[in-house]
Amino acid sequence: MEIFGIPIQAFLGQLLLGLVNGSFYAMLSLGLAVIFGLLGIVNFAHGALYMMGAYAAWLLQEKWGLGYWFALVLAPLAVGFIGVIAERTLLKRLYSLDPLYGLLLTFGLALIAEGVFRDQFGVSGQQYQVPELLQGATDLGFMVLPNYRAWVVFASLAICLSTWFLIERTRLGSYLRAGTENPKLVQAFGVNVPLMVMLTYAGGAGLAAMAGVLAAPIIQITPLMGSNLIIVVFAVVVIGGMGSILGSILTGLSLGIIEGLTKVFYPEASNVVVFVIMAIVLVIRPAGLFGKEK
Predict the structure, then answer these.
(1) Exposed / middle / buried, residue 157 (Cβ in 10 Å: 0-12, 13-18, 19+)
(2) Which among 158, 164, 200, 246 has most CB atoms closer than 10 A?
(3) Are 117 and 55 in contact (CB under 8 A)?
(4) What's the angle, vertex CA 14, arms to CA 9 and CA 19, rounded to 5?
């Protein structure tokens, strides 16, 4: 059986690959959108945090014998703590300034992190085993579905939708949004705004680290894995709308699928299709598909 002259197995395989990549795009762009939307910081260190999450999972296994399921909890907490230190010592000084200063600072932090990890681990990369529970594949009849890739899609969707619900539909989320728009008024009601801001950045860093843990078993862990991905993720955020949480989730998933299908029909364009879409969206709607026009 064929679809547009292409064997259905190849078509569905690329569709699944695009959905997996889109899941990572969604998680990473979600963390960027949370940090920018609530703090106004263009966090260029997000790719480095993603890389640190993957390395944290690898170190937990190699040094302490703690497997994948422990890493899903401990790695985001560890990287989130690093985010707390960065926010309290450096980023908090930039909230009243132009976002360009935050971009430059976080870009510098990303270069420092990459340099440290390259010095410690080299550039050849590390391998991380798929957890035993998720090894193998399921035969669906029309295609063979790798169990771990199915888990990545499910876990990413669950995390993204939970984060959206927390920020958009709960009282804590309303405090976060109000605290970034009018911190003095919110503090007058007894809300600890600096603590909320700190936890927001830590949460965004934790999301990036969790994406790194999810990615570790299916890619090679290298110090440059974040920098290779962050440009595409920024394009996703721009297309969805800077600061739009729902826009980041939907756009990340959609662009991953579009990129995967492009590899089927026109492989030469698969590396640039996201940026072509970004250019078209910026011409038609500069605020992004889900962003608010000023």
Answers:
(1) middle
(2) 200
(3) yes
(4) 125
Which pLDDT score, from 0 to 100, does residue 294 have?
Answer: 58
The ranges assigned to domains in the chain are: 2-284
Question: Residue 90 burial by CB count (10 A; 0-12/13-18/19+): exposed, middle or buried?
Answer: middle
pLDDT at res. 3: 62
* CATH fold group of domain 2-284: ABC transporter involved in vitamin B12 uptake, BtuC (1.10.3470)
pTM equals 0.92
Phi, psi for 276 (deg, rounded to 5)? -65, -45
137: left (phi over 0), alpha (psi -120 to 50) or beta: beta
Instruction: Tell me the H-state helices in the chain.
Output: 8-39, 46-64, 68-89, 99-121, 147-169, 171-181, 183-188, 193-215, 227-240, 245-265, 273-284
Mean pLDDT by 10 residues, the chain (294 residues): 67 83 91 82 92 96 92 96 94 84 93 94 90 89 84 94 89 76 74 84 93 94 90 91 86 92 86 93 90 70
For the record, the structure tokens of 66 come out as 């703690």
Name, in order, each residue with C-beta under 8 angstroms of 92's C-beta and a sequence gap of 6 or more: 194, 197
What is the pLDDT, as a whole number, of residue 180? 64
Angle among Cα 176, 234, 152 to the nearest 5 degrees reads: 80
Backbone CA torsion sign across 77, 118, 234, 157: negative
